[in-house]
Design brief:
The complex is a heterodimer of chains A (about 180) and B (about 280).
Chain A (H helix, E strand, L loop, with lengths): L1 H25 L7 H12 L2 H19 L5 H17 L7 H25 L8 H32 L19
Helix pairs in contact in A: 1-3, 2-3, 2-4, 2-6, 3-4, 5-6
Chain B lengths: L1 H4 L1 H23 L5 H77 L2 E13 L4 E5 L12 E4 L2 E9 L4 E5 L6 E6 L5 E6 L5 E4 L12 E4 L11 E9 L8 E6 L8 E8 H11 L1
Antiparallel strand pairs in B: 1-2, 1-12, 2-5, 3-4, 3-12, 4-5, 6-7, 6-9, 7-8, 8-11, 9-10, 10-11
The chains are: A mainly alpha (about 180), B alpha+beta (about 280).
């Protein structure tokens, strides 16, 4: 229960931190997608209900604070979470290169969805820099994902003695009896 | 049974559908700021403020540090520059003072119709028994013993020992110095003898003579050593009631003998100078 109570506050803190850091390091040119990484992490480590809640809350808060149309990032994060969640059920182990790859793909997908939405729904002509920014953004997210997953694995190792591998999880997040 | 088997799929489908509906609704009707959005923004504002304050603090501290590093370097450079400028200033001041002194010395040539030789003081002996200077000119420059030595505006002594490139000046205040003088106002004659720190004492002036403090004393020209009319000093003390036949008269030299750096030696009378020029021609 405590998870659901703290989640909105933690999300607000994370989104504000993300916006502030992006402003400091890249002057808003690139974004340190901490929320996206959190969603990917949730896809690998949390159960479905908790993960969906996290994705929805994070997406909604990001929508509210970034000025995007309400529901946009909620939908994106939800879809990304579901994608990662189903991928995580089918991979044997969480190698860091897999995390990096998933992070990059998710970031690219997010950028692609945004570009398509702005191009077709809002009829906006995006500049040629979008591709470059998207690629750099994906690389950055990939590197950050690796860092965050490594740090979280160490933390879990210290706390529980071992990490919760994706292959050990079931739909509801419990550990499979086969393992 | 159906619901139980497919509850996950239903949950996922329902959530995605809600998100899609929310997005579509907002895109279509542009609802603006809702209560929920306002709540999120209100909640985020303090966090944003706190983070910005922290970031600004770090940023300011960093900038200040960078500024201080630059400042230290600037400070070092400025200190070096100040030292160099001070040296330059001292040189200029020194030059300026020297120029003023020399100008003052040269003004003697306008005051007196004589030929002067400028010389620099290279040593001094102001002991109890002797009050003398050494100057950097000698026989090779045309100096001879007995020549009067002046510093604007007055006489300060005469040459006693002259070698090839240096000479000794016996100051007026030396106990061995005697100069024939007269009181400019009353033309009363006497002999000014050196008296050390008291300046000079004028001897052989009768008590009946009119001498007052402040009277100017000049050379009388009687001894053929000093030309007539060179300034010597000013009467600083007169005591006619002193025992004996003569008044006790103290004279303070015009020149400050303790701070002399350049002097003019009176080498010849104007006539001689003119004759010299004719010979040269």
């Amino acid at each position: 229960m405590i998870y659901y109570i703290l989640l909105p506050f933690a999300t607000i803190l994370l989104v504000v931190l993300q916006i502030t850091l992006a402003d400091i390091f890249f002057s808003g040119w690139l974004i340190l997608e901490l929320t996206l990484i959190a969603v990917i992490y949730a896809g690998f480590r949390l159960d479905l209900v908790k993960g969906i809640t996290l994705a929805c809350v994070m997406g909604f808060v990001f929508d509210c604070l970034s000025g995007a149309p309400p529901g946009l990032f909620t939908l994106f994060y939800l879809l990304i979470f579901l994608l990662v969640f189903f991928v995580s059920l089918r991979i044997a182990s969480e190698k860091l290169y897999i995390i990096a790859f998933v992070g990059m793909i998710c970031s690219l997908l997010e950028s692609l969805a945004l570009v398509l939405l702005y191009a077709f729904v809002f009829q906006l002509e995006l500049s040629g820099d979008v591709l470059l920014v998207s690629v750099l953004q994906a690389l950055l997210t990939s590197i950050l994902s690796v860092g965050v997953f490594y740090a979280m694995s160490r933390t879990e190792g210290l706390r529980y003695g071992k990490t919760i591998q994706a292959s050990q999880r079931t739909w509801t997040g419990g550990v499979s009896p086969k393992t | 049974m159906f619901l139980k088997n497919y509850r996950t799929v239903i949950l996922v489908g329902a959530v995605v559908a809600v998100a899609l509906i929310l997005l579509s609704y907002n895109l279509r009707y542009d609802t603006g700021t809702s209560v929920l959005k306002n709540t999120v923004m209100e909640a985020a504002a303090p966090v944003q403020k706190m983070l910005n304050t922290s970031v600004s603090g770090v940023e300011n501290a960093w900038r200040r540090y960078i500024h201080l590093v630059g400042l230290e370097e600037d400070n070092r450079k400025l200190k070096r520059k100040i030292a160099a400028l001070q040296e330059e200033l001292i040189l200029y001041k020194e030059g300026n003072l020297e120029a003023q002194r020399l100008k003052k010395l040269l003004s003697l040539q306008d005051t007196y119709p004589h030929r002067f030789i400028a010389a620099r003081v290279i040593g001094r002996e102001l002991s109890i028994i002797s009050k003398t200077f050494w100057i950097d000119k000698g026989k090779t420059h045309g100096l001879k013993p007995g020549m009067p030595v002046l510093v604007s505006p007055s006489l300060i002594g005469r040459l006693t020992d002259v070698s090839w490139h240096s000479s000794k000046v016996l100051l007026l205040i030396d106990e061995n110095s005697n100069v024939d003088v007269l009181i400019q106002r009353t033309r009363v004659q006497g002999i000014a003898r050196g008296a050390g720190s008291r300046g000079c004492v004028v001897r052989y002036v009768s008590k009946t003579q009119d001498v007052r403090e402040g009277d100017v004393v000049v050379t009388s020209g009687l001894s053929n050593i000093f030309p007539k009319g060179l300034l010597v000093g000013k009467v600083s003390y007169v005591n006619p009631t002193d025992a004996g036949l003569f008044s006790k008269i103290h004279v303070a030299p015009f020149a400050d003998l303790a701070s002399i750096e350049e002097v003019m030696v009176l080498a010849a009378e104007q006539q001689e100078r003119d004759q010299g020029k004719v010979k040269e021609e």
